[in-house]
Amino acid sequence: MDPKPKRRVVVENGDTGEDLVLATLIGNGEDLGPIVRHAFEMGRPEALLQQLKGVVKKKEVEIEDLCKSHYEEFILAVDELRGVLVDAEELKGELASDNIKLQGVGNSLLIKLEDLLESYSIKKNVTEGIKLSKSCVQVLELCVKCNNHMTDGNFYPALKTVDLIEKNYLKNIPVRSLKLAVEKTIPVIKTHIEKKVTSQFNEWLVHVRSSAKTIGQTAISHSASARQRDEEMLERQRRAEEQNVSGLGDFAFTLEIEEIDEDSVLQFDLTPLYRAHHIHACLGIRDQFRDYYYKNRVLQLNSDLQISYGQPFIESYQTYLAQIAGYFIVEDRVLRTASGVLSSDQVETMWETTLNKVTSLLDDQFNRTDSATHLLLVKDYVTLLSETLRQYGYDTSQLLEALDKGREKYHDFLLRECREQIVGALGNDTYEQMVIKKDTDYENNVLVFQLQTSEIMPAFPYVAPFSSMVPDTCRIVRSFIKGSVDYLSYGLHTNIYDLVRKYLDKILIDILNEVVLSTINSSTIGVSQAMQIAANISVLERACDFFLRHAAQLCGIPARSVERAQASLTAKVILKTSRDAAYLALLTLVDTKLEEFMALTDNVQWTTEETPQNGNEYINEVVIYLDTLLSTAQQILPLDALYKVGCGALEHISNSIVGAFLSDTVKRFNANAVLSLNYDLKMLENFADERFHSTGLSEIYKGASFRSCLVEARQLINLLSSSQPENFMNPVIRERNYNTLDYKKVATICEKFKDSADSIFGSLSNRNAKQSAKKRSMEVLKKRLKDFN
Which residue range or ranges hold the Exocyst complex subunit EXOC6/Sec15 C-terminal domain (predicted)? Predict the structure, then answer.
């Protein structure tokens, strides 16, 4: 379609440029708005109006000219237009009729359309309402679920539900009132859960503290059982080794190891702690809970460490120490399983505090205690506590050091108790040989202490060479060894044998030896008691080897290691010295008794005129006493002691005979007195020879004899009986026959010797008589001795 040509505007004479422009714009159908606006802005609307009127006139003129030039065409067009008008009227009527029909049909449809639109709107609103309702229902369902969990005490699911509401639903709740209610309730729920969980946790704190004693006692009892099993196993191993060393056969033994899971044995529930810790972590206050737990447990520990002085410590120490053990077993489980609740530094701090308190308490209580038994009971339980807690990784060396400080005090108490027992044993002893009537008594009093001198079981009744104080004392010393080992075992020292040996020497030297020496030096014992004491010391000296082996056995030391000579006790040497002291005391008592029997100055007729045919009467009593003495000594004393006793007694008799000649009481004596003493001496010599051979001493002491103990008296009697006493001054003869005699003693005795009865008539009748050769020789001896001196 061709574009409409722009109408050409004929510019008439008199038209201005503005009118021409306006006419051109109108002719082209352009917008006159800017021109009108400009006219009003310039304040010249009238001019524009005039111009427009001019344009209208021109257009009217143009129309009029156009109509004149196209008149016929215009008439035809008008006719056609009239026809079109008629058709239009008909069309209009038809349209109106159709419209009425359409309106009639469309009204019902329109109503339905409106209903449909309304339904669509309702549907949309209902759908939106359902969607919102579902959101609210979900929130409410979660709230109900949370309430159910709260009611059932399931706080963690309740807290997770609250977190779900808070994170996923709270911002999208469409109902403002519900949203505000939920927002307000969530902190309340969290606070309630925190309080409820804290309350349950506090109940658990009370429960676990009350259960700590049972937990500790159970753990310590397991340690005690394990210790007993170890001791039994070591004992079996020791016996097997000893039998193997003895050549009795090869023995195989197995080490049975019973693995015990302490966590399964010690049943205590940490669930409330785990729950409380987890819930506080979910609440974002984990550190607050950790501090709360630590502070409360420290308070409980400080309370547990306090001890009541209203009750004796010996009655409460087990409960006290078991409570501490249970406390730290719980803390170890918490440290290992409740991650983050406790730190190892916190546990170490609490343990150091406890060590300082307990060691201080032990020092104080040890100072207050005056019984070795009480100290041992406390020590045993403390070492069990130490072993128990060491299994859980706690360093218990400070506890063992505290026990080691009480070692000397314990042994002082033990020694004091043993002193009382030993004094009682010696005081109750009759110092008579024990008569053992049956094999059980023999085993309990002899074999158990290895005091037998033969491996053959004797016939009963059996008369032992010792009195009752020996087995009684051995039992006391054995009990002391056991007590010493019990205290030193499981302590700070791994090798306790040297310490036990030290204390064993102490009881044998400072207690037993001292009490025995005190008894020996007392004035209440007689010859039989002194002899029995000497015999007892010999047996005790032999028992030292048993004591040492027993100590080694209890310490787990092989028996062969204590059989070396350098391993013997110092007390053995001391007892040997005491045995010698007992022999000296015995000999002193024997000498005193012999002096009572002999009393030579009274029992010998020094100047009798009758030639005696036998010895003096006293000598029979002396021989009988010596026979009884040596018979008893042979039964209970070793042969070397028997030899000492026999030699000592006979030497004293020899000295008594020589001393009698030297006594100031004896002013003079004659040959008859010498002859009677010669009979006495021969009887003694015969007795000495018989005893020396019958006792078996001749087999041991082949270069000696009992007779040699009487040599001084024999040489003196021989000298006084000699026909040529002056030979005493001959060095060769003197060395051969009189080597034991002293010049001064011989001179004194010879001055008293008179070869006739001391009477006036005898003196007068013999004054001018010819002196015999013996008298002359004696006079020569007297003179030469006087010159020599």
Answer: 398-752
Give the Cα-Cα-Cα angle 166, 170, 172 (nearest 5 degrees).
145
Residue 299: pLDDT over 90 = yes
- DSSP string for residues in 514-566: HHHHHHHHSTT--HHHHHHHHHHHHHHHHHHHHHHHHHHHHHT--GGGG-SGG
Residue 181: per-residue pLDDT: 84
Distance CA 154, CA 513 (A): 77
Q: Is the dihedral of CA 593, 595, 600, 602 positive or negative?
A: negative
The sign of the torsion formed by the CA atoms of 750, 752, 758, 761 equals positive
Residue tagged 């009238």 (tokens): 46
**HEC assignment per residue over 704-764:** CCCHHHHHHHHHHHHHHHCCCHHHHHCHHHHHHHCCCCCHHHHHHHHHHECCCCCCHHHHH
Classify burial at 78, counting beta carbons within 10 Å of its beta carbon; exposed 0-12, middle 13-18, buried 19 or more: exposed
Can you list the alpha helix ranges (DSSP code H) found in 436-524? 439-445, 469-488, 497-506, 514-521
Q: How far is Cα 132 from Cα 731, in angstroms, rounded to an integer?
A: 151
537: closest CA among 562, 560, 506, 571? Answer: 571
The residues facing 436 across adjacent strands are 462
Please determine, for residue 352, whether its predicted confidence score (pLDDT) is greater than 90: yes
DSSP β-bridge partners for residue 435? 463
Tokens of 373: 């038994």
For 771, phi then psi, to 5°, come to: -70, 140
Please, is 101 exposed, middle or buried when counting C-beta atoms within 10 Å of its C-beta (0-12, 13-18, 19+)? exposed
How many whole angstroms separate alpha carbon 135 and alpha carbon 527?
A: 118
The beta strand positions in 339-465, using DSSP E, are 435-436, 462-463
Looking only at the bridges linking them, the beta strands covering 462-463 and 435-436 are: antiparallel
* Cβ–Cβ under 8 Å, residues 186 and 166: yes
For residue 40, how many other CB atoms are within 10 A of its CB? 11
The three-point CA angle 517-522-523 to 5° equals 150
What whole-number distance in Å separates Cα of residue 455 and Cα of residue 235?
25
Residue range 147-156, pLDDT digits in tens: 888 888 788 8
Angle of helix 372-390 relative to helix 397-405, nearest 10 degrees, comes to: 170
CA distance 285 to 282: 8
Q: In DSSP terms, which residues pair with 462 in a beta bridge?
A: 436
* Residue 70 pLDDT greater than 90, yes or no: no
> Is the separation of the CB atoms in 739 and 718 below 8 Å?
no
Q: Give the range among 253-267, 343-357, 768-782 with minimum mean pLDDT.
A: 253-267
Q: What is the DSSP letter of 669?
A: B
pLDDT at 784 over 90: no
Q: How far apart are CA 92 and CA 472, in angstroms?
A: 155
- Name residues whose C-beta falls within 8 Å of residue 751's C-beta, 6 or more positions apart in sequence: 782
| Residue 98 confidence (pLDDT) above 90 | no
Q: In this structure, how many other beta carbons lie within 10 angstroms of the beta carbon of residue 522?
A: 10
What is the CA 728 to chain-centroid distance, rounded?
Answer: 82
The answer to whether residues 619 and 678 touch, using CB atoms and an 8 Å cutoff, is no
Q: Kindly state the tokens that stand for 137.
A: 């229902």
Single-letter residue type at 449 = F
